[in-house]
Amino acid sequence: MNPFEYANDLMVKEGYDVDIEERKDYKEFLINRSISYQPDLIHIINEINRYPDVDKKLHYDFLHSIIPKKKRSRQFWVKGKKLENIELV
Fold first, then answer.
1. For 3-66, which CATH class?
2. Mind listing the pLDDT tens digit for each residue in 23-81?
3. Residues 6 or more apart in contact with residue 63 via CB below 8 angstroms
4. How far apart are CA 27 and CA 40, in angstroms?
5. How many angstroms separate the CA atoms of 2 and 85, rounded?
6. Per-domain residue ranges of the chain
C-alpha cells in the first residue's frame, strides 16, 4: 500500500489494521500531509504533528480512533494559469 491508501483507509474505512508495526511503507509524514488537505481534519493532524517521535502503532491508533469516518473528496492545489502575454504587461 502507498501512504495515500493508508490515509484513505483512515478516513473512510471502519476496519482496523493490526499489523501496522510490521509495514515498512507506513510513512507518518506523508499520511499526515495527505490527510491535512481536508479542512475538517487539519486540527487533528496539527495535534499529532506536535509529537513527531511516536511509533507507527500509536500514530495509527490515534488517527483511527479520532478521525470521523466518511467519504471525502480529495482536494489538491490547482496550478495557476500560465500567462501568455506576460511580456506585454
1. mainly alpha
2. 888 889 999 998 998 889 999 999 999 998 999 999 999 999 999 988 877 666 667 77
3. 10, 31, 35, 44, 48
4. 22
5. 41
6. 3-66
